[in-house]
Design a protein that fits this description.
This protein has 644 residues and is α+β, with helices and mostly antiparallel strands. It is elongated and about 145 Å long. The protein folds into five domains: 122 residues, Immunoglobulin-like (Sandwich), CATH 2.60.40; 96 residues, Immunoglobulins (Immunoglobulin-like, Sandwich); 110 residues, Sandwich (Immunoglobulin-like); 37 residues; 183 residues, Rossmann fold (3-Layer(aba) Sandwich), CATH 3.40.50.10140. The chain has 13 helices and 31 strands. Helix 7 crosses helix 8.
């Protein structure tokens, strides 16, 4: 009660302030001129403010008052017996005079806001010798069919009905009154004049006069219609879609439905089609909304009957539970009638293929992910299985082989030889694979029996090995120390000796017990290197009895690779190579990130751990290609190796 009293006092103060100061001095939202009302002297006229609207403010909860002002004098309009009646948002002129012509301002005030709106009253003298009003409304009549005229005084009738005031309408054709049921005319309802069959003579003016009593005074207001007879016509619209149907759809999916209406006739029909749900129009046409309708579109048809198709699409971007079990109606509004058709949305039955499809999709995705994971981590996965499930692998100890791998590398004085290669073959490989992982290696420069022929040594020890580790650099297969003719002769000679036991070309020899060719040490070293390569390629490519692991000690360019033997290039393309230089490059990149003063210390501390740890990527790949030792195999990958 206290709050309402305070608001009432505030409203009273604001109203009093507006009366005392005049509406021109208030800071109101100005809607300017909104309406024009036409009248003639002696008629009644209604000026209606539209400020009481939810688009302006919440009039159901916020208190307000409305005051009318004459813009010419700035004075507030008040009741005058027999002349003026103010009823809230409506200003009535009960007996119009020419002096009443002008602009009138309605000011709506709330405790927090102020709004103003301008309405213009135009008072015109009747045209001498003619009946009806100077200002006329245009309406179309279709020749040859039944048609209707609508009285443009519905606003007056609705307002009077809100006051519970009765009224009556009288129709005139020109100056002659029209009686119901005569001359082909009929009063279909209070505001409609029916014409049974429109003819050319109906092309004239019609006046409807509304008579009522207000403020103790009986008066009238009239509107004149200029009826134009045309041969363009439209008949009752026919709603073809939706056809009063039930449609099932899935929750969460999108859904669309056309409203399709055919209007028989000639010319453009005056028909409006709308979608209705829950007794409300669906007017939203913004595609970003969840529920919206498209703009209406038209297309004409000449066969089999003339007419116009009207279409409007209703779209749900995502169906929700509240959208189901509701009738969605497409209705066509026209002067001939308002037919409609509807559809009802129901949830669709579960699709049995959906879980099957989802399962197949899940299996496919899982398979693809598994393939990708295996491709990226196959080395780690394989080594893990060997360590955790050794019983799954066959023991290789009883296969008659003496060595796990034969190590072939460019010997001293051979093409591609370097101290780094020799150190890698004689120190690094044994330290990791033999001491760290328990493999047994045959290394030519370390394990040859003194006095044994080269061909015998190579053939015998390769045959006694399960793998062959072929160490090479960019110059191993591309060097030019031997002439082409010498190289060709040696290759032919080697090819013959690989498939026979004829060793007449090879001698044993010097005091050290090392085998050699008669020509020079270079011929010896190159011959051993070529024997190892040719024998390995023969076994892996022709016999398939030996697996060769290519160990690439430095980066090979495409130009250098093009000079490699075709067998090596084929093997490298088929199974790839284990690249030691990548391991070194990674360490070098790491070293560039540390400070210069710490580089020496870091190199001492990490060189062994980075290059000799069996857990590094390079050694994992080597171990991946090495033979599996089976259930009795032991992989002593110990961190003690890092302390060497």
């Amino acid at each position: 009660m206290g709050r309402n009293a305070a608001l009432g006092s505030l409203l009273f103060f604001l109203g009093l302030f507006g009366i005392c100061t005049g509406f021109e001095q208030e800071n109101c939202t100005n809607y300017r001129l909104q309406f024009k009302v036409y009248s003639v002297p002696g008629d009644m006229a209604m000026l209606n403010s539209t400020l009481v609207s939810p688009n302006v403010f919440d009039f159901n909860t916020v208190p307000y008052n409305i005051t009318w002002y004459d813009s010419k004098t700035g004075q507030e309009m008040s009741n005058q017996t027999g002349r003026i009646l103010v009823q809230g948002e409506t200003l009535w002129f009960l007996n119009i005079t020419l002096d009443d012509s002008g602009e009138y301002v309605s000011v709506l005030r709330t405790p927090f806001q102020c709004h103003r709106q301008l309405t213009k009253l135009v008072v015109e003298l009747p045209v001498p010798g003619k009946c009806g009003r100077p200002k006329k409304a245009d309406q179309i009549l279709t020749k040859g069919v039944a048609d209707t005229l609508s009285c443009p005084l519905m606003d007056y009738i609705n307002k009077l009905n809100s006051y519970n005031i009765s009224s009556s309408i009288k129709w005139y054709r020109g100056c002659e009154p029209i009686e119901d049921g005569t001359g082909g005319y009929s009063h279909r309802d209070t505001t409609t004049l029916g014409i049974s069959k429109v003819e050319a003579r109906n092309n004239c003016s019609y006046t409807c006069t509304l008579t009522f009593t207000l403020g103790g005074l009986t008066g009238s207001v009239s509107e004149t219609i200029n009826a134009e007879v045309t041969e363009v016509y439209s008949l009752v619209p026919q709603v073809h879609e939706p056809a009063n149907e039930i449609i099932k759809a899935h929750i969460g999916y999108n859904f669309s439905k056309w409203c399709r209406v055919f209007v028989p006739g000639v010319g453009k029909p005056l028909v409006k089609i709308v979608w209705i749900a829950r007794d409300q129009l669906i007017l939203n046409s913004d595609p970003s909304s969840r529920v919206y309708t498209s703009k209406p579109r038209e297309s004409s048809q000449d066969f089999p009957s003339k007419g116009t198709w009207l279409e409007r699409l209703l779209t749900f971007s995502e169906l929700r539970e509240e959208d189901f079990h509701i009738n969605y109606t497409c209705r066509a509004y026209s002067s001939r009638g308002n037919p409609g058709g509807y559809f009802t949305l129901l949830p669709a039955d579960p699709d049995p293929m959906l879980p099957i499809g989802s399962g197949l999709a899940g299996v496919t995705i899982l398979f693809i992910v598994s393939v990708i994971v295996y491709y990226l981590f196959k080395v780690d996965i394989a080594l893990w299985f060997r360590r955790v499930f050794p019983v799954l692998y066959t023991n290789k100890d009883l296969d008659g082989k003496l060595y796990d791998a034969y190590v072939a590398y460019p010997p001293p004085c051979a093409v591609g030889f370097s101290k780094e290669v020799e150190m890698f073959a004689l120190q690094t490989l044994p330290q990791v694979l033999e001491k760290g992982c328990g493999y047994k290696l045959f290394i030519a420069g370390r394990d040859c029996i003194p006095g044994q022929a080269i061909l015998d040594s190579v053939e015998e020890n390769i045959q006694a090995s399960r793998r062959l580790l072929l160490l090479y650099t960019a110059s191993t297969f591309t060097g030019k120390r031997l002439t082409s003719s010498t190289s060709s002769n040696n290759n032919n000679h080697l090819s013959k000796n690989i498939n026979s036991s004829d060793n007449s070309e090879i001698k044993t020899g010097d005091s050290s017990g090392r085998t050699s060719f008669d020509d020079s040490d270079e011929v010896y070293t190159d011959t051993r290197q070529q024997l190892e390569c040719v024998a390995a390629m023969h076994r892996v490519l022709l016999e398939g009895s030996l697996k060769v692991v290519l160990v690439e000690l430095e980066e090979i360019t495409p130009a250098q690779l093009a000079l490699f033997p075709e067998s090596v290039r084929h093997l490298r393309k088929k199974q790839g190579a284990v690249r030691w230089w990548k391991n070194l490059r990674k360490r070098q990149r790491w070293r560039t990130c540390v400070r210069r003063e710490d580089e020496e210390k870091h190199e001492r501390d990490t060189q062994l751990s980075q290059s000799l740890s069996p857990s590094s990527r390079f050694w994992k790949e080597i171990r991946y290609y090495m033979p599996v030792r089976g259930k009795r195999a032991v992989y002593p990958e110990k961190t003690a190796l890092l302390n060497l």
